[in-house]
Amino acid sequence: MGIVKYIFSVLFVVSAFYCTAQPDPDPIPMPPPPTPVSGEFQDEEPMVFPEVMPAYPGGETQMFKDIASAMIYPPLCLENEFQGKVFVQFVVEKNGKISNIIILRQPEGDLGKMLGNEAIRVVKNLKDFTPGSLNGEPKRVRYTLPIYFKIK
């Protein structure tokens, strides 16, 4: 009986060392940190879920219409019939202006980067939002927007 306990003890110790010796899995790549905003809002962290979300003049429908009308499909993407979805994140400041625009996700490769660059250009040209608020006080709010590139 003693030898069986000894064998199980050795197996337990060896398996414990084996489990702890495994390398860490590859970390999930994170987007680069947003560029700090100059001015009065820089030290306040943007909210994600305020009491009242920022509103685009005319609503989301108008925002997507403005995006579609301002979008210039990259010619090389058109030639290659390249389509995809780009997730853009930005901060709506207390005054309604857009800042800290970053790409969260875009299609792979150079053509995907072209779509990402066009998405940033379009978002930079959006009208000012009505700012989000908490307890009636305007707050900086992080806003994520999917932009679809689809050839009709």
The coarse overall form would be flat
Uncertain parts: 37-41
N-to-C order of helices and strands:
HHHEEHEEE
Approximately what portion of the residues adopt beta-strand conformation?
15-25%
- Whole-angstrom Rg: 24 Å
Q: Could you name the CATH homologous superfamily of the domain at 54-152?
A: TonB
Strand arrangement, major sheet: 2-1-5
Task: Report helical residue fraction.
Answer: 25-40%
- CA distance, first residue to last residue: 76 Å
CATH fold label of the domain at 54-152:
TolA/TonB C-terminal domain
Number of strands: 5
Structural class, by secondary structure, is alpha+beta
Mean pLDDT: 82
Which CATH-level-2 architecture of the domain at 54-152?
Answer: 2-Layer Sandwich
How would you characterize the overall build of this protein?
There is one protein chain. This protein has 152 residues and is α+β, with helices and mostly antiparallel strands. It has a domain at 54-152: TonB (TolA/TonB C-terminal domain), CATH 3.30.2420.10. It is built from four helices and five strands. The strands form two sheets. Strands 2-1-5 form a three-stranded antiparallel beta sheet, covered by helices on one side. It has a two-stranded antiparallel sheet with strand order 3-4. The chain is flat.
Produce a short descriptive summary:
With 152 residues, this protein is of the alpha+beta class. The protein has helices at residues 2-20, 59-70, 75-79, 109-124; strands at 84-92, 98-105, 132-134, 137-139, 141-149. The chain has a domain at 54-152: TonB (TolA/TonB C-terminal domain, 2-Layer Sandwich), CATH 3.30.2420.10.
